[in-house]
Amino acid sequence: MMTMLRIGLVGLGRLGKIHAEILSGQISNVDLVAVCTLDDKEKSWAVSKLGLSATCCFSDFEKMLDEAKLDAVVLASPSSYHFNQTYLALSLGIHVFCEKPLAVKEEKIQNLFDILNTNSGLVCQVGFMRRFDPVYMKAKEKIVNGDIGEIILFRGYSLDPISEIHNFLKFLPSSSGQFLDMAVHDIDMANWLIDAFPKTIYSCCNSFSFREFEEFGEGDNVTSLMQYENGSMAFIMAGRTAQHGYHIETEIIGTKGTIRIGSVPSPHQLEILDGSGVRRECYTDFADRFYLAFQNELVAFIKNIHEDEAPKCGIHEAYKATLIALKATESLKEKTLIKL
Ligand code: NAI
């Protein structure tokens, strides 16, 4: 019989609550035994909804690691904490699932590789959940099978609904920028599907509706064009001003065919015919679009720990996506082509 894994969850915000729900009822052989958050209301939520005792709700990450006897942590804390929290947990021999991005600046990533090399049974997975979404998995399968030939262009859009902009603007000063915050998912998808590394990056942006972004050298919409070592190209766009909802769209144009994912960003086939014409409802947020992928990635994390297998989305993959996102940001700020 499999042993129960004792899990500690860090962060109970927008995404942390989703991970909590999944870990506390939807996966076998895990026990969510502790949470860590700075917010007292979130601690009360953990007591009432997760059935944790107040003593299992920590404000201090290190104290939780010291006291809760954990096998693994799931990190859904703000991005600026990810690298240090990952490093600390791994160095104590605790498995880590870390939300994206792994880091917000060029960190001593070699230290993480060193820990993992000397502890071959430790699992460190990073939250690129699109790799666990059935539609993206099907696209990957078709590409590997050669169905669309050689990849000419990867085109990825990540657009957040404008209805959320005021929540986002509160966090703008602490944001790590649109490429690390949002487009890093598309960067990881491009890396995964093209299966190579870029050699050049050029980014640009503009603030069409919210000039607040300009103070940080950013825009409310950003784009980047990359050329990969194998000649494939990638065009990526991330924006915060979609009027219609949460819109994740991907197109992969190949020499023998094209794959499109999410060009109509709607959860169902239902169409509404009314005074505005004929329309479909749009996804509202990341939970609406990717709930199954969030479940699948945590199931895979737990399975990898139990079966002593390397994650399909680990530190190497996260490092590459982080580095590219940092270079895309540098190109934006310096207004120049970056060679990698
Ligand atoms: P949030 O702001 O809603 O929640 C942050 C949580 O972290 C709060 O519970 C807060 O109390 C806690 N926290 C803050 N400082 C802490 C510290 N020093 N130690 C422990 N806990 C601390 O943030 P949200 O939107 O849930 O994002 C969290 C992370 O998840 C971010 O890194 C973000 O990039 C990532 N994310 C990933 C998504 C995806 O599509 N995979 C979607 C949304 C967020």
TrEMBL record:
GO biological process, one term: NADPH regeneration
Alphabetized GO MF terms: nucleotide binding; oxidoreductase activity
Keyword Isomerase carried by entry: no
Gene Ontology CC: one annotated term: cytoplasm
Tagged with keyword Acyltransferase: no
All copies of domain GFO/IDH/MocA-like oxidoreductase, residue ranges: 136-260
InterPro entries: Gfo/Idh/MocA-like_OxRdtase_N, GFO_IDH_MocA-like_dom
All copies of domain Gfo/Idh/MocA-like oxidoreductase N-terminal, residue ranges: 5-128
Highest taxon of the lineage: Bacteria
Keyword annotations: Oxidoreductase
Any single Pfam family the record assigns to this protein: GFO_IDH_MocA_C3
Family per record: Belongs to the Gfo/Idh/MocA family.
PANTHER family: BINDING ROSSMANN FOLD OXIDOREDUCTASE, PUTATIVE (AFU_ORTHOLOGUE AFUA_2G10240)-RELATED, NAD(P)-BINDING ROSSMANN-FOLD SUPERFAMILY PROTEIN-RELATED
Protein's name in the database: Inositol 2-dehydrogenase
